[in-house]
Amino acid sequence: MRRLFGTDGVRGIANLDLTPELAFRLGFVGTRKIVGGQGRGRIILGRDPRPSGDLLEAAIISGVCSAGVDIYKAGIIPTPAIAFLTRREGFDAGIVISASHNPLEDNGIKFFSREGLKLSDELEEAVEEELQLDQPFLDRPLGVRVGRCYDKSDAGELYIDHLLSTVSVNLGDFQLALDCANGSASAIAPLVFSRLGAQVLAINTELKGDRINLECGSTHPGAIQELVRSSQVDLGVSFDGDGDRVIAVDEKGHILDGDHILAILIYHLRHKKLLGHPLVVVTEMANIGFDMAMEKVGVKVIRTRVGDRYVLEEMIKRGAFLGGEQSGHIIFLDHSTTGDGILTALQLLQVIKESQQPLSELKKVMEKLPQRLANVRVKDKTGVISSPGLLERLDLYNRELKGRGRVLARLSGTESVVRIMVESEDEEETTRIVEELAQLARDLDRGQEK
């Protein structure tokens, strides 16, 4: 059986790869493995607004109840809300139906432990192994032991209250633009910032689900960039489909990714002596300019694999307060156990207000090296990434760029994509190398390597 779990749960094209039958089995086996057999058990379930969420939700509910565990529906709500509510309300586990920033046709299923943590690789492997057996499906509860389904109607308000409790700031004179990606943040983010007094201009707030991430959100920052420039607001922020990442745009219309946001937050906390341990956890994709910025303030940079779950694991291991990814997943361990786009935007706003500086000034703490990322969609990503032809070319360029840049290729954990990243001091060189490697990956996938 192929490995189901990627870097962020199970994903695929809904009703083709990720079928209701598979969703039922994941609900049943995942519940048995995570909750165990002690007591009745309770699980909270949230989702993004994709149309396929309805059929997958029904299947998961059936699987969980068939395992003898009660399930509480939180409805359309950001992923980090489920991580928070699982801990806050004492649930045995949390489940989210979402494919995050992926296209509309995709969907996904991810689990959280009772501590609000994503599952370990070992537990995911145990779930997959049990999915291959018939035995767990033979031992089902009957009668009153069957699980029940309830609505968790106060989930949104509990999450909003939590978000507001993390800052002490009045935004009465602040103009803020939001791009909610027609996703889970649409029903939450505008309310949060409005309650703090901000004048909010929000776009892409549909909850029908048929336009989620469509030329909007954190993977298409041009939408929020255009809005900021045309509306002359103080700040723009753009979320992804499930609200666990954020990209910012300063008042002049310049885009800031997760590396830049993290650097600004760390500089501020370091200045106020609130950082604790002088270290931060990022992934291998973080720009070299981030390391240079951290060196100036005496903060050690720890790099890990791509995926906020791996960032969190290393943060806990090292005792770090802050960590994150270039994509905009930022983790504040005092407040959350996963990336949270709305929470990050709140913390960034607090820095702007406390420092009394616009974001265009704050961003000067870090100067990025030219970096280009190519997302190459292929049929056989494993075959491409392990090809001798690609490996030899990567090694060649890394030797050429030693001391002034680097080249990295990795598999997407959520799509059939090979991601190629190139950094160097020379922008033209960076562009040339990334385009050459991207074309090589396409040729390898078609069996046309020259």
CATH topology name of the largest domain, in short, is Alpha-D-Glucose-1,6-Bisphosphate, Chain A, domain 3
Instruction: Tell me how many strands there are.
Output: 19
Calculate Rg over CA atoms. 22 Å
Report the structural category.
alpha/beta
Mean pLDDT: 93
Total discrete domains: 4
> How does the major sheet shape up?
7 strands, mixed
- Give the overall shape, derived from the CA principal axes: globular
- Return the CATH architecture of the largest domain: 3-Layer(aba) Sandwich
Name of the CATH class of the largest domain: Alpha Beta
Order the strands across the largest sheet as they lie in space. 1-2-6-5-3-4-7
Number of helical regions: 15
Q: Percent of residues in beta strands?
A: 15-25%
Query: End-to-end span in angstroms?
Result: 34 Å
Q: What percentage of residues falls in helices of 4 or more residues?
A: 25-40%
* Low-pLDDT sequence parts: none
Name of the CATH superfamily of the largest domain: Alpha-D-Glucose-1,6-Bisphosphate, subunit A, domain 3
